[in-house]
């Protein structure tokens, strides 16, 4: 699934440009992805694209600290939570986008929730939201797409 998401990010500037799912599925199959992987990625992406505008809006106005539930602590490693805090501290994620990232991470299987996958999920949230982010943080997140670190 992550390979499909990374491919979509690299091939399409705008996630709205692939609203014809049947055509997109055909293009992804022609690119060599299997049907199950394509469907999983597109379902995951559909869920992200269809968040209502106000679904997590209250998180942007929160003034307190984000406390993770027991389930979130169990499923999201300290390293993943640290990445989210880092991205939030450096202006890449606001409260609402952080909650979107958490929601999409929790939609994954436990063994799929890693720092690289969290970077890709954060990048996908920012991409779908058409958000700008500081260039150095963007480079850090892009290593999840390219599979190699771009920052020292």
Automatic annotation (TrEMBL):
It comes from the Bacteria. It holds the Pfam family DUF494. PANTHER family: PROTEIN SMG. Belongs to the Smg family. This is Protein Smg homolog.
């Amino acid at each position: 699934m992550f390979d499909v998401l990374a491919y979509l990010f690299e091939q399409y500037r705008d996630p709205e440009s692939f609203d014809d799912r049947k055509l997109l599925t055909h293009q992804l199959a022609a690119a060599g992805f299997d049907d199950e992987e394509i469907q999983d990625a597109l379902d995951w992406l559909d869920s992200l694209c269809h968040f209502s505008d106000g679904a997590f809006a209250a998180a942007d106005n929160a003034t307190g600290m984000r406390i993770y539930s027991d389930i979130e602590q169990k499923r999201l490693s300290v390293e993943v939570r640290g990445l989210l805090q880092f991205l939030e501290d450096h202006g890449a994620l606001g409260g609402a986008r952080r909650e979107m990232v958490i929601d999409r991470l929790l939609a994954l299987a436990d063994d799929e929730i890693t720092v690289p996958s969290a970077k890709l999920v954060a990048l996908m949230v920012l991409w779908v939201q058409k958000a700008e982010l500081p260039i150095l943080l963007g480079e850090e997140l892009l290593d999840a797409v390219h599979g190699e670190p771009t920052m020292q």
